[in-house]
């Protein structure tokens, strides 16, 4: 099945999720100063996700200071998302769960199937999206493997530059 990738500079795909705290989260309701950053992670079964999200947690306050609201999202059910949030020490980053295959495809995420008993039958590979306050997709980074992730410290260091220069989204000529 072919998947079309969302194109930066266009409206971001919709995203409505449940949070582990029992609240609803809707992308269109977000109002960050700079960006909403959606961190798509593989799930509780992924030790690389644990390390990546733990590093992100270490800089969470700095992201907020730069005007970037963060949410971690996976296809895991609530119980596994709660366990990851607790065991990985991710509080207070909002944790969404139950991303559907259709939502993952809307965002252009790569999907994988279980290769052992510890993995879910279907799960998304990692991804990162930045959405402007007006709902425009500014940046999208997807990986087909758990081993490739963006340099979050470098991205954090560029938020002010992007805002000050009104740096445009790139990749807008995608098919």
What's this entry about, in short?
This is Redoxin domain-containing protein. The protein has 175 residues and is an alpha+beta fold.
Descriptive keywords:
175 residues; single chain; 7-stranded mixed β-sheet; alpha+beta
Total of domains:
1
Radius of gyration over alpha carbons? 15 Å
The percent of residues in helical segments reads: 25-40%
- Overall pLDDT confidence: 94
CATH superfamily: Glutaredoxin
The separation of the N and C termini measures: 17 Å
CATH architecture descriptor name? 3-Layer(aba) Sandwich
> What ranges have pLDDT less than 50 throughout 5 or more consecutive residues?
none
**Morphology:** globular
Give the structural class: alpha+beta
Helices and strands, in N-to-C order? EEEHHEHEHEEEEH
User: Which sequence of strands runs across the widest sheet?
Assistant: 2-1-5-4-3-8-9
The biggest sheet, with number of strands, parallel, antiparallel or mixed sense and barrel status, is: 7 strands, mixed
Count of helical regions: 5
CATH topology heading: Glutaredoxin
Strand content: 15-25%
E-strand count: 9
């Amino acid at each position: 099945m072919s998947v079309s990738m969302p194109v930066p500079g266009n409206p971001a795909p919709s995203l409505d999720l449940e949070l582990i705290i029992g609240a609803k989260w809707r992308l269109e309701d977000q109002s960050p100063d700079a960006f909403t950053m959606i961190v798509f992670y593989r799930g509780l079964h992924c030790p690389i996700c644990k390390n990546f999200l733990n590093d992100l947690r270490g800089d969470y306050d700095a992201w907020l200071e730069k005007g970037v609201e963060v949410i971690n999202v996976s296809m895991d059910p609530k119980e596994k998302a709660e366990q990851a949030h607790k065991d990985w020490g991710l509080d207070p980053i909002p944790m969404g769960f139950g991303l559907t295959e259709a939502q993952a495809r809307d965002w252009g995420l790569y999907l994988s199937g279980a290769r052992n008993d510890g993995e879910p039958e279907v799960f998304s590979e990692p991804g990162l999206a930045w959405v402007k306050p007006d709902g425009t997709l500014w940046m999208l980074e997807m990986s087909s493997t758990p081993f490739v992730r963006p340099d979050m410290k470098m991205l954090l260091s560029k938020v002010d530059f992007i805002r000050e220069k009104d740096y445009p989204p790139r990749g807008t000529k995608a098919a």
